[in-house]
Amino acid sequence: MRTALAALLLSAALPGLAGTPAAAGFPRVIQGDDDRTITLSAPPRRIVSVVLAVDQILSALVESDRVQAVSPLTADPYHSYAVEWARHIPLKIDVNVEQIIASKPDLIIVARYTRADTVKLLLDAGLPVLRLGAYASIRDVQGNILKVGEAVGADKEAGELVRQMNERLAAVERLVARASTRPRVVHYIKGGFIAGAGTTYDETIV
Description:
Blueprint: H1 4-12, E1 28-31, E2 37-40, E3 47-49, H2 52-61, E4 67-70, H3 83-86, E5 91-92, H4 97-102, E6 107-110, H5 116-124, E7 129-131, H6 138-152, H7 155-177, E8 188-189, E9 193-194, H8 200-205
Parallel strand pairs: 3-4, 3-6, 4-5, 6-7
Antiparallel strand pairs: 1-2, 8-9
């Protein structure tokens, strides 16, 4: 099932939001969630993402010809809103260190939950690895959008995406405030999971 993150992100994106990377401001130093910094001399053009949520963010901010690899789930319409965007990306891979290194990336984006041994191997290979923070709240999601935008030279587009999200969320809040009842909701996720407190599902519903 498409995630709540993807729904919020892609429903907020305007057609044509992805644009030409802004070379101004490069080189730049980017700090990840793990406090490590990477230095990017120019807007990256061989990006590797190993996380579905990052793929969805990238689809709203950059053209697919700047991306070398994404998660296999991004090609699956059950999970992804970015199937068409991802169609011509060369690699759809799980976290495969050999394939990632062979793709000669100039930026690799991982998640807080990406395996530590995998991240270490990529770092030991001398590759620029940016680790994003959690996705436990809408604010977290927006922080990650802005961080990806900073890394890929799409600061303006990322800021616009967050602005649109806030507009739509405010509109939903106004509609909910007029509701006379608030039904109880259980959101069942394929694989036998139910979203609980501290998730974007919970925040979106509540």
